[in-house]
Design a protein that fits this description.
The chain is an alpha+beta fold. A 4-stranded mixed beta sheet has the order 4-3-7-8, covered by helices on one side. A two-stranded antiparallel sheet has the order 1-2. A two-stranded antiparallel sheet has the order 5-6. A hairpin with a 4-residue loop joins strand 7 and strand 8. Helix 3 packs antiparallel against helix 4. It is globular. It starts with a helix and ends with a helix.
Length: 157
């Protein structure tokens, strides 16, 4: 780990940066209370059917969350070609991974709330305790804009 921390410039003087702990520590919640992910399946906004929590370093959270979403939460359309069964998920894996990576890169880890993923029959909502860059509006996000992650060290890693 030390080699990667130095290579990725995740040290400042002799101290580890927050990103190093979040990315590599087996239990970053010791240092950052809300450094985990909650997933819930909702019938409606006030009817939670079931939920899961994903813990570990950020690399583990990405892999475990993606696996859990596609194995438990996201529906597959099933077709047959001859004797072969073909399953097509309701959402592209690349799109879900991008939304998840954005939620992680833009989260404010000084707050105590985890990233929350709310899965409904026909939509998924990713939420984090983050904020827009200074002088940005939601409308700015709806048009072409530069990437300005809240956690550039995490995003670059």
């Amino acid at each position: 780990m030390i080699k990667w921390v130095e290579k990725l410039q995740l040290k400042e003087n002799s101290y580890l940066k927050r990103a190093a702990i979040l990315l590599f520590h087996p239990n970053p919640e010791i240092f950052f209370v809300g450094a985990y992910i909650k997933i819930g399946f909702f019938e409606s906004d006030d009817e939670l059917r079931f939920q899961d929590e994903i813990h570990g370093n950020l690399f583990e959270q990405v892999e475990k969350t993606s696996d859990l979403l596609f194995n438990k939460y996201i529906k597959n359309e099933i077709e047959y070609e001859g004797v072969n069964r073909i399953e097509t998920p309701e959402y592209l894996k690349e799109a879900i991974r991008e939304a998840l990576l954005n939620a992680i890169s833009h989260k404010d880890y000084t707050g105590g709330a985890p990233i929350q993923i709310s899965v409904y029959d026909h939509k998924i909502i990713f939420w984090n305790e983050g904020q827009l860059p200074e002088n940005w509006t939601v409308e700015d996000l709806e048009k072409k804009h530069p990437s300005k992650p809240f956690n550039p060290d995490i995003a670059n890693t």
